């Protein structure tokens, strides 16, 4: 088959490669601890499932909906966003999509074209660069200054050209779990306003913030920065709803209208049943979100000291999301592995612990460890990693 150049250029999702291997090993009866997954280990809360069942039984889930979603859900998303970010959005500013992933993909399709450059700070979520390339634009990756975990305006400005169209800011971050402070975001926001660069704020993990750290959205700063920002969010992580595929964009009516046209041809709409589930999630009791957040926090606080004590593991304690992203350069030197990729492959093969390699996120000396897994398994995984490293020292 003669595939398009576009297809030839796509890198398959690297987060899935080791995860698939781990699944195969599990199927063979091997006791693999899978720390490669990017999804909550919790079940979707019962009241959300119940609302979906009721929607099906009432016949509400039988037909297409508007491309951008049912009105009550768009209203609920506007209210939810306004409450969190002190904004004034209405349903007209909201498009519901098949996961936050499709929000980001659709935005790339309606905003970018050949010749455009899009700034993407390191470490980045795996799909940003590929989605930008699928829109024929060029991803420009921006590394933090030496010794820093996050990029600042200095590094962004160094990569800015007259082709720079947008910059994608993810906070709390996947994979390092770090949060941009208000001051850092203000500086980035003002720089974007000055140079008319669109900011895409991926706030997917905004509800998963730990140990008194504060999350601030780009939407919650000055009016000028808010006007420059397009929000992407979703229910996958905070409500343990990855399978329901509920994401959304909040933006100006102009942007939403373009997205609506795109979505009308791409997916029509997110499955109606998922929309009713999402409505129940956003308008119902929020205690479930806090319960899950507390569980992640406990895991983080228990596991971080153990992981950072492993020989050569160096990383800042995450503030949000549910990943840790140690730099293991020194561990590689101690153990003789040539790369973190080799280390991760051997770790899976011999110690039966699956992680994701940092190269998937633009930082090849790191590995990503997800703590969306029960505490007992996490503790056992750390024990296995310690033994594995000792064996190679
Ligand atoms: N953005 C980030 C940073 C993510 O980690 C993910 C999922 O892993 C997404 C967006 C997309 O999530 P979903 O499509 O499930 O809403």
Short key terms for the protein model shown above:
Aspartate Aminotransferase, domain 2; PyrdxlP-dep_Trfase_small; 15 helices; 12 strands; binds pyridoxal-5'-phosphate; aminotransferase; alpha/beta; pyridoxal phosphate; 7-stranded mixed β-sheet; EC 2.6.1.-; pyridoxal phosphate binding; 393 residues
What report would you give on this structure?
It is a single chain. By secondary structure, this protein is α/β, with parallel strands linked by helices. It folds into two domains: 5-44 and 288-392, Aspartate Aminotransferase, domain 1, CATH 3.90.1150; 61-283, Aspartate Aminotransferase, domain 2 (3-Layer(aba) Sandwich). The protein contains 15 helices and twelve strands. A seven-stranded mixed β-sheet has the order 2-8-7-6-5-3-4, with helices on both faces. Strands 9-12-11 form a three-stranded antiparallel β-sheet. The chain has a two-stranded parallel ribbon with strand order 1-10. The chain is globular and about 60 Å long. The N and C termini lie far apart (48 Å). The mean pLDDT is 96. Pyridoxal-5'-phosphate (PLP) binds at residues 38, 99-101, 125, 170, 174, 202, 204, 234, 236, 242, 247. This is Aminotransferase. Keywords: Aminotransferase, Pyridoxal phosphate, Transferase.
Biggest sheet record: 7 strands, mixed
Q: How many individual β-strands?
A: 12
CATH class of the largest domain: Alpha Beta
Task: Indicate the overall shape.
Answer: globular
Class computed from helices, strands and strand pairing: alpha/beta
Strand proportion, as a percent range, falls in 5-15%
| Alpha plus pi helix count | 15
